[in-house]
Amino acid sequence: MSTSTYFTKTGRILLVLLGMLGFQPIARSQEMFTQGPAKVLSQVGFEQLTGGVVIIKALLNDYPDTLNFIMDTGSGGISLDSTTTATLGLTTVPSDRTIRGIAGIKKVDYTNGHTLHLPGLDVKNLDFHINDYEILTGVYGLKIDGIIGYSFLRRYIVAMNYDDKIMTVYSIGDLKYPRGGTMLRPAISGLPMQFAEMEDAKNITGRFYLDTGAGLNLLLSNDFASDSSLFSSGKKKFPTIAEGLGGKKDMELTTMKRFKLGNFKFLNVPVFLFEDEFNVTAYPHLGGLIGNDILRRFNVIINYSRSEFHLVPNTHFREPFDYSYTGLGLYYTNGTIVVTDVIPKSPAAVAGLQVGDVVIAVGNSFSNSMQIYRTQLQQTGSKIKMVVTRNNELFETTMQVKSIKKKK
Question: Which pLDDT tens digit goes with each residue over 87-108?
Answer without folding.
Answer: 999 999 999 988 877 767 788 9
